[in-house]
């Protein structure tokens, strides 16, 4: 799979809202109130994704004529699944091997984690970066991008059985920078649409034990 197309293309489409605030644990992982333009931004994003899928030459539906595009399926917009997080960097980022959906092994870097609070409980998702090996393969200016792959209780039911991705802005040099982790922008990798592609399989430590009723649903029934 062309990870540069997958990650770069989606990152260009994603609109994230960034906040600065103090560093208490409660504030770092608090739910984010939806901004007044939450709906209009999300609708604009989904319209842009739809246009990309329909018309861009790099779209899986234009590169694989055996699949037909009939629009993406989404959960209704839900600001309950927006969280404000500080990136907790690991002291020594760990090189890890991630499985691709076609059985290939990929080298990535477990760089840090986000913590967020949902319904009174704290949860953690590991954040990844591309390894030097992957950067050499994919090219492009991707070394500062942060990647989150996850599964949840909807995986294999309402959502794609492999899992979903959420794009994050480039890493900020500010250790107290607040990223918005918005699951309304969660999307399927290209392998969810076409068997021509392979994509990274979320690791077991990024399995959320509750349903994320936000973002993209599965494409094929």
What's the short story on this structure?
The protein has helices spanning about 5-15, 25-30, 40-55, 60-65, 130-140, and strands at about 80-85, 90-100, 105-120, 120-130, 145-150, 165-170, 180. The chain has about 220 residues and is of the alpha+beta class. The strands form three sheets. Strands 2-3-4 form a three-stranded antiparallel beta sheet.
Write the layout of secondary structure elements.
Layout: H1 3-13, H2 25-28, H3 38-55, H4 60-63, E1 82-86, E2 88-99, E3 105-118, E4 121-130, H5 132-138, E5 145-150, E6 164-170, E7 178-182
Antiparallel strand pairs: 1-7, 2-3, 3-4, 5-6
The percent of residues in helical segments reads: 10-25%
Q: What integer is the average pLDDT?
A: 85
Number of helices: 5
Along the chain, the helix and strand elements come as: HHHHEEEEHEEE
**How would you name the oligomeric state of the polypeptide chains in this document?**
single chain
């Amino acid at each position: 799979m062309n990870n540069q197309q997958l990650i770069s293309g989606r990152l260009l489409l994603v609109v994230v809202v960034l906040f600065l605030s103090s560093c208490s644990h409660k504030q770092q992982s608090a739910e984010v109130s939806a901004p007044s333009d939450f709906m209009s931004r999300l609708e604009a994003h989904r319209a842009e994704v739809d246009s990309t899928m329909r018309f861009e030459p790099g779209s899986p539906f234009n590169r694989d004529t055996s699949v037909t595009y009939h629009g993406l399926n989404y959960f209704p917009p839900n600001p309950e699944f927006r969280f404000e997080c500080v990136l907790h960097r690991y002291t020594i980022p760990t090189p890890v091997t991630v499985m691709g959906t076609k059985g290939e092994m990929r080298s990535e870097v477990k760089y840090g984690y986000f913590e967020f609070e949902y319904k009174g409980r704290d949860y953690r998702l590991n954040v990844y970066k591309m390894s030097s090996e992957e950067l050499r393969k994919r090219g492009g200016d991707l070394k500062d991008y942060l990647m989150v792959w996850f599964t949840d209780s909807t995986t294999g039911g309402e959502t794609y059985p492999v899992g979903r991705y959420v794009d994050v802005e480039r890493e900020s040099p500010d250790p107290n920078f607040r990223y918005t982790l918005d699951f309304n922008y969660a999307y399927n990798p290209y392998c969810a649409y076409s068997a021509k592609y392979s994509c990274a399989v979320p690791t077991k430590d990024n399995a959320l034990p509750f349903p994320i009723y936000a973002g993209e649903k599965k494409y094929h029934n």
